[in-house]
Amino acid sequence: MLTNIPNNPNSCQECGRVLRGRTDKKFCSDTCRNNHHNRKNAHDINLRRNINSTLNKNRRILCDLAHFDKNQSVTIEQLLRKGFSFSFFTHVLKQPNGQHIHCCYDCGYYHQSNSRVVIIKRENLKKVNITN
Ligand SMILES: [Zn+2]
Is 100 domain-assigned? Predict the structure, then answer.
């Protein structure tokens, strides 16, 4: 009976077996489909977990360095030594003066110079004008 089912030009995305039947089929069995999706989901979950972990670490570093009631200027070197990653932030607040505040949730910073940033904590972020 299997000989009546035409070969599919594609192979199973999980095990590589030749597929039979519909040309839009991607997997030879439910097991292969489930294995494929479970592995892909695990990869995606792991990726998001690592990003969230980096964002939370950045936020913690900013909050730890900031004074409670005023803005604090720190060196980029200080942030890097604590493990801060400048590639990760949740959003950017653009100021009317063109300045960009990079935020990690409720804490942010802007560049004061090539070597220093000013940290802005939650209370003060609320006062910042959002222009976009
Ligand atoms: Zn398969």
Answer: yes
